Amino acid sequence: MSDHDDLDPLATAHLDTLAIRSGIKRTEEGEHSEPIFATSSYVFENAAEAAARFSGESPGNVYSRYTNPTVRAFEQRLAALEGAEACVAAASGMAAILSVCMALLKSGDHVICSRDVFGTTINLFGKVLTRFGVEVTFVPLLDDSAWRAAVRPNTAMLFLETPSNPLCEVADLAAMSALARESDSLLVVDNSFCTPSLQLPLEMGADIVVYAATKYLDGQGRCMGGAVLGSAIHMNEVLMFLRTCGPTMSPFNAWVFLKGLETLRLRMEAHSRSALELAQWLQQQRGVEKVYYCGLKDHPGFALATQQQKGYGGVLSFLVEGGRDQAWKFIDATKLVSHTANLGDAKTTIVHPATTTHSRLTPEQREEAGIAENLIRLAVGLENVVDLEADMQRGFARIR
Ligand SMILES: *Cc1c(COP(=O)(O)O)cnc(C)c1O
Description:
The protein is an alpha/beta fold. It contains 16 helices and 12 strands.
């Protein structure tokens, strides 16, 4: 055997190989596909071992709220894809974000959060954490001076998503990381839209990445889950919160996500390709006022997205001519795509943001955020684009 053969083949492996091969610890049964460890607790060989496990001297499993082999396999695989020191899985995307906050913030801390993040994240910061003495300022994602002006001596965390939902605005992750350094705070990036297949925020200086695994990591709309990635020191704090407070990922869901990761790169490429094709097609249709997709050359985020992403993702939105009536008619005329607010699925979804995902904003806030009454969001799935175009034609036929 040459020296080369002694090396771990995963040490030099690429993302698509890591997505399939990392995190595997085969049992003595020799199973090829990862097993689901459906067990709440683990038995000890003897009393001394039990004592060592409980004291933390011995690293083995004790209880599945603490550790579970299937969940660990998912955590290790995602950490390998992200290039992160450590990963902690959580019961949902919101559980992941909550865990980061509970682990790394304390009463009296201040958070600056992008205004253009997932609606429930806004509520978590604005309605829940504020009850525990955490202060929060919301700022428009791309308003640099607003971010800077919001910094206070007690600012501990900057939180954002890029590209944003639904207008596909792209934040400069290197610049935001620099601001986090300057303000002695942590940059937390919700990377659910891009996944590690399209964007690696840690490489660009972010401290922590969070995921709704529910979306593209699963990819087929089956399970709720989340994940937090970052340094071992930070992840120990997050793990401490999770195992004490309980929003851990179930082994079955971990298994579904493990399988989802195996096809992640292929899926993200396909979502991105189809979304670009559909965005370009929509731009040419009569009845369309504007298309928002960061893969379009005339989108303000195009250059930055091209530089910091490996693809533009599956979410786009567009304005139809007219107002809410026309948008609703368009949506109601479609037959193939699913009318649901979810995304990150093989099935394409369509939704009217102003009256669903963004309905809790006041009309003034919606106006400021660019969520117009004639805006429609598509999360482009994996169907044939020609069939998606035919379905959009049903919408246009109704409003022209
Ligand atoms: C869905 C979503 C979440 C929340 O994830 P859940 O699994 O629904 O709790 C957080 N961030 C983004 C960007 C999402 O799309």
